[in-house]
Amino acid sequence: MTFTDRQKEPVSLNIIRAQYLASAVNSSQYPEMENAAVQIAFVGRSNVGKSSLLNSLARQHGLARISSTPGKTQTLNFYQLTAKISEDIRRSFLLVDLPGYGYARTGRTLRRQWAKFIEEYLLQTSHIKLICQLIDSRHSPMESDIATYRWLIENGLPVQVVATKVDKISKMLISKQIKKIKQELGMDRDSVIPYSSAKGIGRDQLLDVIAKLLLNYER
User: Fold this and answer.
1) How sure is the predictor about 178, in pLDDT bands with cuts at 50, 70 and 90?
2) For labelling, which of 61, 141, 162, 208 has a CA lying 20 to 30 Å from the CA of 55?
3) Is the four-CA dihedral 204, 207, 213, 216 of positive or negative sign?
């Protein structure tokens, strides 16, 4: 299933705390979930801008390390955020940065190992409430993007597609690229959020999705 937002009014959410928790290559290394049962995972091709987006959401430069070398992230990286939704509502949740897929220079054996433990995490972790799939807005979705999206949908996982790096293209081209992404992924009514980590475009929209998710989640 895809993530469909049925609420019309925006919800105010402010991130008041963000910290790195842990890195993992197997389930025994996952952090304890007592104080943050909701997890939001971020997937995408190598160098699509996952770390930049995480830093942008938290407004904490350096929270997630940014590398100029594609395929650098080789672990699941967990970050705990605390959000203020109203004067009397606080919610803690985890953002999880997954290794990028589709990096050709990564050895085939290593790619298979990554795929195995990523699939294990996505399919066996009940705390996952949303998966944000990041796609570079400057290009058409690649085969790995399409295959990943279809795999997520086929496995009944909630997906929010985010088109990154929209500051790199013209405003006129953004709408065209969003339409192309939706068509090639086979999306119907569900939205694609255009995002720029550099300029903050789309941040409020994605935080609104997260806020409603946190409010709807019953502990």
Assistant:
1) very high
2) 141
3) negative
Q: How far apart are CA 19 and CA 187, in angstroms?
A: 34
- pLDDT class of 6 with cuts at 50, 70, 90: very low
The pLDDT tens digits for 53-112 are: 999 999 888 898 765 444 455 789 999 999 998 878 888 999 999 988 865 455 565 556
Q: Tokens standing for 215?
A: 């409010």
Contact between 201 and 209 under an 8 Å Cβ cutoff? The reply is no
**What CATH number should be reported for the domain whose range is 14-216?**
3.40.50.300
Q: Give the C-alpha separation, 32 to 36, whole Å.
A: 8
Q: What is the C-alpha to C-alpha distance for residues 186 and 141, in angstroms, rounded to an integer? A: 11
Instruction: Name which of 5, 17, 1 is nearest 209 in CA terms.
Output: 5
pTM for the whole structure:
0.87
